[in-house]
Amino acid sequence: MDLRNFFFSYRSFTPAPIVFILLYLAEPRFPFLWIGFGSVFIGEYIRFFAVRYAGGITRTRKVGAPSLCTSGPYAHTRNPLYLGNMVIYMGVTFIAGGVFMWELFGLVLIFFAIQYAMIISLEEETLADLFGTEYDIYKNNVPRFIPRIFPWNGPDNRIPASLTNTINTEKRTLQNIVFILSLIFVRTYFGDAILL
């Protein structure tokens, strides 16, 4: 099996070891707590904005797309969902805090850089096969990860989904964020009692 397919198919579960490490070492402290909450909010905003344009197809385990989304946040970066995820996990690292916060911050960056490099490579090959020249033009005008300041004016003029539909699509991510943050605070306030 292509390792890229593994990371794509299980991208929701591969960060689990990092979450467990963050939970084990959690010791939230100010001002990192507020920086973390701000990062989580910004990351989820990026994700929410991306899901409004791309829709529920982003939840698939099959690489591909029925159409090439190049509007909304996709006019700034080709991978806004992955950018949002990285910002969320960096925020969770700040919220967890602890004596190894900076080392864990580096681990989070390295892990996601490797995982997303593989996933994006696979997706780009697939999208190039599916959309040919249309994808090549898009790829040449919109950066892979770091957003461009001004949006690219491509041919995709789709209307974003309603807020209600987007919340329904993004519900699992929102639940996971609340669950992980709740575990950090339970771990912090009940200490070693929950680790026994």
Can you summarize this structure?
Helices cover 64% and strands 0% of the residues.
Question: What does this molecule look like?
Answer:
- This protein has 196 residues and is mainly α.
- It has a single domain, classed as Up-down Bundle (Four Helix Bundle (Hemerythrin (Met), subunit A)).
- The N and C termini lie far apart (38 Å).
In CATH's first tier, which class applies? Mainly Alpha
SSE string, helices as H and strands as E: HHHHHHH
Unreliably modeled segments: none
- What's the tally of helices? 7
CATH architecture label name? Up-down Bundle
Structural domain tally: 1
Using the coordinates shown, work out and report the CATH topology. Four Helix Bundle (Hemerythrin (Met), subunit A)
Largest sheet: none
Q: Globular, elongated, flat, extended or rod-shaped: what is the shape?
A: globular
Mean pLDDT: 89
Helix fraction?
Answer: 55-70%
User: If you compute it from the alpha carbons, what radius of gyration comes out, rounded to the nearest whole angstrom?
Assistant: 18 Å
Please identify the structural class as seen in this structure: mainly alpha
Q: How much strand content do the residues show?
A: under 5%
Total strand count, please? 0
Can you tag this structure with a few keywords?
196 residues; mainly alpha; Four Helix Bundle (Hemerythrin (Met), subunit A); 7 helices
Protein topology:
Blueprint: H1 3-9, H2 16-25, H3 32-54, H4 80-96, H5 101-131, H6 133-141, H7 163-190
